[in-house]
Amino acid sequence: MMSLTITPVLLPLIAGFSLLLLRQQSLAVQRLFSLGFILALVMIALNLVSTAASGEHQVYLAGNWMAPFGIVFVLDQLSALMVLLTALLALAAMTYTIAHKIDELGAHFHVLFQLQLFGLNGAFMTGDVFNLFVFFEVLLLASYGLLLHGGGRLRTKAGLHYVVINLIGSTLFLFAVGALYGAVGTLNLADMADKIAQAPEERHGLIASAGLLLLIVFGLKAAMFPLYLWLPAAYSQTSAPVAIIRVHGTLFGEAAGPLAYLHIDWVLVSGLITLVLAALAVIAAKGLREQVAYLVLASVATLLIGIGLNRDGSLAATLFYLVHSTLIAAALFLLADTISRGRGDFADKFVSAPAIPQAIFIGAVFMFAAIAMTGMPPLSGFFGKLALLNSALTHPWIFTIFAVVLLSSLLLIIAMARAGSLLFYRTQPTTESVTTPPNRLALSAVLALLSVAALMVVFANPMHEWTQSIAQQQLAHSTYLNAVLSTPVITREVSP
Amino acid sequence: MEWLIAICIGAMTASGVYLTLRARTFPVVLGLTLLAYAVNVFLFAMGRFVVGQPAIIDDNALGYADPLPQALVLTAIVIAFGMTAFLIVLALKARGEMGNDHVDGLHRDDDEEKNTR
Question: Which one, of A446, A455, A317, A311, lies nearest residue A378 by Cα?
Fold first, then answer.
């Protein structure tokens, strides 16, 4: 079973290179391969989830070097969940891409897509801080390519901003990693947590500032640019909060002495501020894709609040909300694209336009997605938010948290209701059908993602138990440290 | 030697931050390059300053230089180099498509009208 641990990282890399070799072939061949690799990734992810469910950490020592000296990849329940979530999202996004032939717009779409999966899975599984930086760079480089895919002036402008912001983020990341290395002399997460707990008094300031600098970096990556493009944005939200849970949760856990829970208040405050700003931006959005981008920001803020609560059950609730919001946000991005295709030249702007084809059906889907996203009963967003607020009951800032979360939810509901009525009710009479009806395959990808909102309600109890077990494993730092640092190297028996 | 290195890193970072905040793409690219240099020297300095010592095991060595920051800097240089090259191409593309080198691509008010996909 050891060998499967590394496969979610290796498989997309192999896929990316083989697709590069296949670039002379027709798009049909490339699509077949790309989809095949993603299906294989889903299978492997399912297998890994069941492997990780035992609660043991599966540690892979790259190059067979002992833990603090070599790079380790760790499969625990959290990374298994994230790999599965990434693979499912990739499947839906790839189906939608193929259905709408988005990959015809520029070169190397499938290569970049697979390399982005490589970066994401690597970032979720690595147990080394510098390696995390490298995987973030891989993921960002691929996302730059995907962002500029298809061209267009507005996209170039947004892309320039995105690249510059992320380069600044990468520089800060290196400063933080360098300072941490200078203070504790290791890059392995488990070893670093161990060393921080024993660090002498005079190093605390340095470690604390490096840790908070790292938090700024993840914040920069999480609250990313309101990209008017579904793919990188839907992914960007998952990787950064998970990185905070993993890196800061491990380094500044309860064992870290005076430095314990250094980041918690910062995360909570920045989450609350981001949520207010995002809710206002959702109200102010002039187009549906812009609105969805800010909705993603709002759910990232909710995740940050969940991490910052640091109460019993808050991490489990955060993970529940993470699964829900990632899939629903991706579905909303795809749905916004479908709607703007149906509106022809009016695209996704909130103005009165001729009715889109199959308006009743798509309108119903939009309403379903809006209910799930804003966290109204009976769909999964409600359960996620309920669990979060429930764990906030004992927090000293309970009134602030409740006020911000509930008021921003109200703003989101108003904004989505306005968007829905503008897009579907205030239509102009039209004489001829100028637009094509929505693609069935593309719609099925959206519906499959949205069905999660219903499934997470039906299976709320097992799902909640699962996230609770993930959270427990995350909070048990000493088992993580032991598992990583005591994994033996593989020695080959020398036969006489 | 510490103070000299510290001043160098500080000066490069300050100039880098200043240039990054400029409104034209070329100074921004230069600023990011300076920031990358600063962080490379910083990473190197985090391995402590050792003069004339080997980084690999040697029976005759009196002391050792930390080999890890050297590997880190090498990786960071490669990544920063690739990113800068990409950013220059992107800046040139933006210059060509928007008609000027302002980071926001000014003087094209029809951006709002033509919602590209």
Answer: A455
Which amino acid, one-letter code, is at A185?
G
CATH number, domain with residue B75:
1.10.287.3510
- Residue B90, in any domain of the structure: yes
**What residue has token string 């080997």?**
B54
pLDDT grade for A377, boundaries at 50, 70 and 90: confident
| SS3 state at A72 | strand
In sequence order, which ranges of A229-287 are alpha helices (DSSP H)?
A: 230-243, 249-251, 264-284
Measured between CB atoms, which of B69, B93, B115 is closest to A349? B115
Asked if A238 and A463 touch (Cβ cutoff 8 Å), the reply is no
Q: Tokens 């209910």 label which residue?
A: A371
pLDDT digits 0-9 by tens, A182-233: 998 888 888 888 888 888 888 888 888 998 888 888 887 766 544 444 444 4
Check: CB of residue A314 under 8 Å from CB of residue A376. Answer: no
Q: Is B27 exposed, middle or buried (0-12, 13-18, 19+ CB in 10 A)?
A: middle
Would B116 be classed as within a structural domain?
Answer: no
Alpha helices in A126-188 (DSSP H): 129-148, 153-184
Adjacent-strand bridge partners of A427? A353
Q: Is residue B57 part of a domain?
A: no
Residue B60 lies in a domain: no
Give phi and psi for A245, each to the nearest 5.
Answer: -55, -45
Q: Mind telling me how many Å the CA of B51 is from chain A's nearest CA? A: 18
Mean of pLDDT values over A378-388:
86
Residue that has been written with the tokens 């360098």 in this structure: A178
Per the CB < 8 A criterion, the answer to whether A64 and A305 are in contact is no
d(CA A371, CA A374): 5
Q: A439: part of which helix (H) or strand (E)?
A: none
Cα–Cα distance list, A110 to A36, A141, B59 (Å): 12, 14, 51
* Spatial separation of the C-alpha atoms in residues A471 and A152, rounded to whole Å: 43
Burial class (CB in 10 A: 0-12, 13-18, 19+), A165: middle
**Beta carbon pairs, A and B, within 8 Å:** 100
Tokens read off for A464 = 């909640």
Q: Quick check: helix, strand or coil at residue A41?
A: helix
Q: What is the ipTM of this complex?
A: 0.89
Peptide bond into A378 cis (omega under 30): yes
**Angle of the B25-45 helix axis to the A153-184 helix axis, nearest 10:** 20
Contact: B98, A150; criterion CB under 8 Å: no
| Full domain range(s) for residue B23 | 2-51+65-106
- Smallest CA–CA distance, residue A160 to chain B, in Å, is 7
List residues in chain B touching A: CB distance below 8 A. Answer: 20, 25, 28, 32, 35-36, 38-39, 42-43, 45-47, 68-69, 72, 75-76, 79-80, 82-83, 86-87, 90-91, 93-94, 97-98, 103-105, 108, 111, 114-117
